[in-house]
Amino acid sequence: MEFKDNEAIYLQIAGYVSEQILRQPWSPDEKIPSVRDLASELQVNPNTVMRTYEFLQNQGVVYNKRGIGFFVAPDADARVKQFRRERFLQQELPGFFNTISLLGIGFGELQQRYQEFQAGQAALIPATTDEKQ
Amino acid sequence: MVRIRNLHFGYSRRVPLFENLSLTLERGHIYGLLGKNGAGKSTLLKNIVGLAFPQAGTCEVNGHPAGARLPVVLEDLFFLPEELHVPALTADQFVGYTAGFYPKFSETQFHRYLADLEVPRQVKLPKLSFGQQKKFMIAFALAANTGLLVLDEPTNGLDIPSKVQFRKTLAGALSEDRCMIISTHQVRDLDSLIDTVLVVHNREIVLNAGLDDLAEQLTFGTAGPADGAGALYAEPSVRGRQVVRPNLGGAYGKVDLELLFNAVAGESPAVVNYLNANPVRHESAV
Description:
The structure holds two protein chains of two kinds.
Chain A: H1 9-22, H2 35-42, H3 46-58, E1 62-65, E2 69-72, H4 76-103, H5 107-124
Antiparallel strand pairs in A: 1-2
Helix pairs in contact in A: 1-3, 1-4, 2-3
Chain B: E1 2-9, E2 18-25, E3 29-35, H1 41-49, E4 56-61, E5 64-65, H2 71-74, E6 77-80, H3 91-98, H4 107-116, H5 130-143, E7 148-152, H6 160-173, E8 179-183, H7 187-190, E9 196-201, E10 204-210, H8 211-217, E11 218-223, E12 233-235, E13 241-246, H9 257-264, H10 270-277
Helix pairs in contact in B: 4-5
GO molecular function (chain A): DNA binding; DNA-binding transcription factor activity
Protein name (chain A): GntR family transcriptional regulator
InterPro entries (chain A): Tscrpt_reg_HTH_GntR, WH-like_DNA-bd_sf, WH_DNA-bd_sf
């Protein structure tokens, strides 16, 4: 996994786990990889992954069965979207605003492009979830 | 696990390498030991494993002086030096002669690590390339399951896939009762693997800090020519000046270990002073 510089690794791993949940390889009430296995897979310190899981537990995305491991929460999908929303608004949107104001791109143009984007998405995959990326 | 107090050491009496060096290492962590060439990384490791003896002060492993080399300490300690001298044995013969010294050695794990690192078992060790020898010893070191694992420049000589496999294996091998310490120059090989960074500089440990804490205390980034104010450390780069600043906004980024190292092992003590003056308050220790 390639890590970005501007965000703590444990949060980037939280993003990765969320991705697995949103794209549904990991479904509700399914056991997710152990701290050790995910640390090994991502080549990161197990303490970092532990921190990720504790963070996701606090967000209600996963729950802990003592002695067994971590499981995807039943409403994980909604929880993930909620915290991803926060993360996007705090982490990515300021940079985006910075760039559009620097380049003088107005909201009219953005709106038009966004509508084109949505039309393109709809044509590609009819009736999927309204996942924003 | 490791407790060093007021260590004085030098290969010559007139040229001290360490003066009043103190350091404590705990289980459940992977420590990254950084320092310039000649700063004493390997020498510090040798003091920890009982291959060099303090001139003054103490160096204890599990409460016993490291220099006494007690069996109870040595059977729970593995040291992988930077340069290897392997005997003319195959992997299985080597295990037959050596594994008995490590009560927790696991042959199953050893074979799995060898397979993961793609080291052949039937070839005599001196016939292997340097990188293969190193990987062989890494597999043995991890399979020995010692409480203390000391690796001196383990990624030297490893090719790119082997480094990836090394990180995977090490990340999977850490447990709450193991303490790993890795010295390295290749900071980028290990920067997401270690959780605590140690910097040896000017005859002492100038930095001993968790990466999580550092991320709370400092920010690392690029500054334009105008907004360098408040930087504790700055160095030029293609992207603009790379700066280390106090983390006042509460943002929580990734620690740039190379930049941090340059800041700490440089002339100016600004970063070290700032860290000491603004410690992180811990709600819970992991």
